[in-house]
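Project channel, design review

CF: Before we commit to the Lichenicoccus roseus constructs, I'd like one complete example in the thread so the newer folks can see what an input/output pair looks like. Taking Extracellular solute-binding protein.
RD: sounds good, go ahead.
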Amino acid sequence: MRVTRRGVLGASLATSLLPRIPARAADSLIRLAHEENGPGSVRLINETVAAFEQGHPGVKVSQLYLENAAYKAKLTTMLQSDDRPDILYSWGRGTLDAQVSAGVLRDVTATVQGWREDFTPVALDAFRIGDKLWGAPFTVSGVGFYCNKALLARAGVDPAHLASFDDLLAAVARFKAAGIVPIAVGGGEKWPLHFYWAMLALRLGGKPAFDDARAGRNGGFAAPVFVEAGRMLQQLGKSGAFQPGFAGAQAPDSYGQFGDGKAAMTLMGSWVMGVQKANAANGQGLSDDAVAYVRFPLVAGGHGTSTDTFGGVNGWAVTRNAPAASLELLHALTSPHYERTMCERNVYLPAVRGMSQYLTSPVLRQVATEIDASSYHLLFLDQTLGPSLGSVVNDVSFALATGDTTPEAGAKQIEDARQAEDM
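CF: and here is what came back for Extracellular solute-binding protein:
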């Protein structure tokens, strides 16, 4: 996930003004780097750090916050410095692979052994490379359609009948006929549009299609499945599904539009329930009772299943020479106690088994249940494929939605980028 995906508008430090991470005096300082800026998450991290320091006299935790883009841009340099963070915010596979290959992370398999059974398989697998664990998760997210019940009712759209892509296209037509914007999307940031391309490809080809694409088998990302996903995304764009000016809209714009009741649906991660309220004009947005959650529709003739899910996994990794106490803080930031508190406050979806019951939001509980039953959880492609190839996926998804490329050319562009990385 990105900070911009959560869309919480607030102060962030300009990168040019950021202090260096404090130098360590022996093992008395643990340096924690992250990109969390949501009020609920920041509060929980601060509470956990304070309790940790109280229970570990003489140990202090220094937090370094960077907004998402700056965090990604500076992380590699920070990890190569003598003042590297001891614990770092991680999205799991993709960036994690590169960090492991560079030798900057600590194998935490033995450490996590004590509580690894607490985690859901979907969450833990994001930090597993081979038979080793290189971090621990604290949250998962799931992408689906969040729907304004009142606007659906006005247009005569039953959320229970949004089961197929054809149903989605029919709903778009109904919304337009009723004078309602069908879908709000922050197209200007591009990554929200890659949700459509990725989910369509997942419904068309399932896990095997992505396994083959990553390995360059059967045409890689230029395979028919990905061409067809592009065609369907382009069809959706041409149908007028998205709000006027979507190509220039930022993610918070779309959150606010949905929260203000000016769009019937938005395809977004589970964090949207919080940010649509924060970005609404009245600061309150839609109540949970006013929102229906609908999983992404199936595609006729597709090989994917309704239990294939798409989203992210976020967690923490520990650097190679971090002080021993860092491993105890890793546990504190991913423990069942942390997860239960996170759920009771409806901050994020849990990465630990049995915690979904503590979510008080019925919408979030529904999403969590869906992920718990997931047969395959595809992680955000623009993160797991790495920054270069992931950026191409975003660019192509944007061009498909705006009609600026063809499905064939778009798929070839992604495959060419994949091959270039393998050279």
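RD: helpful, thanks. The mean pLDDT is 91.
CF: The domain at 3-141+311-378 is CATH 3.40.190.10 (D-Maltodextrin-Binding Protein; domain 2).
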